Structure to design on (301 residues):
């Protein structure tokens, strides 16, 4: 598997996840790289964050990523040909207090990697909006929900459990507005 | 220095920074240094480690980095309860946090 300057964050994430999984490590892609993938590249992520389930030795990670051309600089793995880097934030895999995260498979060119689902990626961005009033995260949650099928009822229940129904309503409103704006956009005529 | 208290979060500075953040809600290295009476460099080292462990988050506000216990840490409620219990035994930290004025002061009002 060769990565080049033309590789997207999705290509790199699948290459890394697949390589780790082939070596017996369960690595799940999270964070901004998932947003980039689930919004068809309308968001650009500078890193690919993987949460590893279970324990793994640093040397094993170095070897696995080294086979793809990455080298470790502190906590980051960088590649000479691509701009983004790979990191392994500490687990567990969770969205807030919710540990019941079921990853989905992403495949490309015969390689398969695990990632959080579109619904969980949407919740992940919403958590940043709920906790830090980060409106960029609200916008990204809306974009994910526009591009992918997300379980709005699950997100509503999760928001309710966290006492965030008002913020959830704001998300829904923004999503409706975005969908309406898209529907009203005039079609280009040739 | 003789160790007189337990440090369940690793080094003494890490535990005391967490207790102070629990009591203050959020803070920055210089303020934590004053509250804990340890050098800013020790506070910064502790914060860097706690950030790596995803226990605290730092945000840039103006020219400062403001830190708080991460709202996204999966066991945040339990962690906060535990830290509050530890704060009962850290009377010096609790006492010094009560000396900080954090409520608003009208612009231009004399001190």
């Amino acid at each position: 598997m060769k990565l080049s300057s033309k590789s997207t964050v999705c290509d790199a994430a699948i290459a890394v996840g697949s390589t780790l999984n082939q070596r017996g490590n369960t690595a799940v892609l999270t964070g901004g790289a998932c947003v980039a993938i689930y919004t068809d590249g309308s968001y650009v992520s500078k890193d690919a964050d993987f949460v590893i389930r279970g324990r793994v030795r640093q040397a094993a990670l170095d070897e696995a990523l080294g086979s793809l051309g990455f080298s470790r600089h502190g906590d980051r793995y960088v590649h000479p040909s691509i701009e983004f880097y790979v990191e392994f934030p500490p687990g567990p895999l969770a969205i807030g207090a919710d540990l019941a995260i079921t990853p989905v498979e992403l495949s490309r060119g015969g390689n398969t990697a695990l990632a959080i689902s579109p619904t969980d990626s949407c919740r992940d961005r919403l958590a940043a909006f709920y906790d830090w009033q980060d409106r960029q995260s609200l916008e990204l949650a809306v974009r994910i929900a526009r591009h992918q099928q997300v379980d709005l009822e699950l997100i509503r229940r999760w928001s309710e459990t966290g006492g965030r129904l008002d913020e959830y309503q704001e998300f829904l409103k923004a999503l409706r507005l975005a969908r309406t704006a898209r529907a009203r956009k005039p079609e280009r005529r040739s | 220095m003789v160790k007189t208290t337990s440090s369940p979060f690793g080094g003494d500075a890490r535990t005391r920074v967490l207790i102070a953040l629990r009591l203050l809600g959020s803070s920055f290295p210089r303020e934590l240094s004053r509250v804990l009476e340890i050098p800013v460099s020790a506070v910064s080292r502790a914060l860097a480690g706690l950030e790596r462990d995803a226990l605290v988050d730092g945000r840039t506000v103006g020219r400062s980095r403001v830190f708080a216990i991460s709202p996204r840490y999966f066991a945040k409620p339990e962690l906060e309860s535990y830290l509050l219990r530890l704060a009962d035994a850290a009377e010096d930290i609790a006492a010094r946090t009560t000396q900080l004025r954090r409520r608003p002061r009208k612009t231009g009002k004399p001190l």
Remarks:
- Chain B touches chain A through ten residues (CB under 8 Å).
